[in-house]
Amino acid sequence: MTKNKDNKKSNQTFLFEKKNYTIMLVGLVVIAFGFILMAGGGSDDPKIFNEAIYNFRRIRLAPTLVLVGLAIEAYAIFAKPTDK
To answer: Does 42 map to a domain?
Structure first.
């Protein structure tokens, strides 16, 4: 009976491999960089409107980076593990 339990523990494998986790980490870095680019643009005085919130970096580039990061994450999840 104990031999069966030992066999079950030794036959367990992980769902993802190192490649998948590396790709996931790259995706998280891209998403984080996109959110960092979105930050800022406020004004110290609430009575003064700052046009910097509508620049290319915050409106186009940052959301695109977040979406690309999410696509990288999806690829990392669906990437087929290598056969041994």
So the answer is: yes
HEC assignment per residue over the chain: CHHHHHHHHHCCCCCCCHHHHHHHHHHHHHHHHHHHHHCCCCCCCCCCCCHHHHCHHHHHHHHHHHHHHHHHHHHHHHCCCCCC
* 13 pLDDT higher than 70: yes
Print the domain residue range for 34: 14-78
Least confident of 9-18, 24-33, 58-67: 9-18
Whose structure tokens read 């680019």? Answer: 37
Average pLDDT of the chain, as a whole number? 85
> For residues 61 and 69, what is the distance between their CA atoms, to the nearest angstrom?
12
In a domain, 70, yes or no: yes
